[in-house]
Amino acid sequence: MDIGTEMVKDLREKTGAGVLDCKKALEASNGNMDKAVEWLREKGLAGAAKKAGRTTKQGVIEAYIHPGAKLGVMIEVNCETDFVARTDEFQALVHDLAMQVAASKPDWVTSDEVPADVVAREKAIYRTQAEEEGKPARAIDNIVEGRLKKFYAEFCLLDQPFIKNPDVTIKSLITDVITKTGENIRVARFVRYQLGA
After folding, report:
1. Long-range contacts of 170-175 (CB under 8 A, 24+ apart)
2. pLDDT band at 13 (very low <50, low <70, confident <90, very high)
3. CATH code at position 99
4. In whole angstroms, what is the distance from residue 140 CA to residue 134 CA?
5. Hey, what long-range contacts does 173-176 have (CB within 8 A, 24 or more apart)?
């Protein structure tokens, strides 16, 4: 199939990927735009993993006050350069992350930050629940791990479903921006204030 410049341009506008990568994606997917986007995302995920070790000393601190002024969030999101920190894409991501914290009340940024005693307590609760539900002994470990993942999805920011699109996790949302900007991005910390809480 002949891949025209208009197709490459459309894919580039959709994904922010480079011209050559867009052309390769369209060739690999026989001109199917959705498959090309998927191909680029898969490639981007690998690229984001390579960037994960890079230093992030720039970024922004966003303050979000929910209408009514009874709920507020401060969040620090870091990137590699001040140039990226000033882009509309990065600013929009940080704003979305602040709104996510306001709406979803996470306690930690990642599951790695959950204290070991909390993880042990949750596992013990899930094990007891599974045993009391009469689940087969050989299935209990898998049940406990599955319920622990649900716990992380509720209380760890990066594991939460995005409030604007629940089919996407916050980690995936950040990875998409990493792919587009070409820089490592990480959420350093956040604090959520609620009046009377």
Report:
1. 170/97, 170/100, 173/93, 173/96, 174/93, 175/44, 175/45, 175/48
2. low
3. 3.30.479.20
4. 10
5. 173/93, 173/96, 174/93, 175/44, 175/45, 175/48, 176/41, 176/44
**DSSP classification of residue 31:** T
- ∠ CA 177-175-54, nearest 5°, is 90
* pLDDT score of 46 more than 50: no
Q: Which structural domain range is residue 69 located in? A: 58-109+156-194
Residue written as tokens 């996407």?
168
Same domain, yes or no: 41 and 18: yes
Same domain for 133 and 164, yes or no, is no
Looking at residue 33, which CATH number applies to its domain?
A: 1.10.8.10
Q: What is the pTM of this model?
A: 0.70
> How many CB atoms neighbour CB 100 within 10 A?
24
Is the pLDDT at 10 greater than 80? The verdict is: no
Alpha helices in the chain (DSSP H): 5-15, 19-28, 33-51, 82-85, 88-104, 116-132, 137-155, 170-181
C-alpha 159 chain-centroid distance: 7
Q: Are 110 and 156 in contact (CB under 8 A)?
A: yes
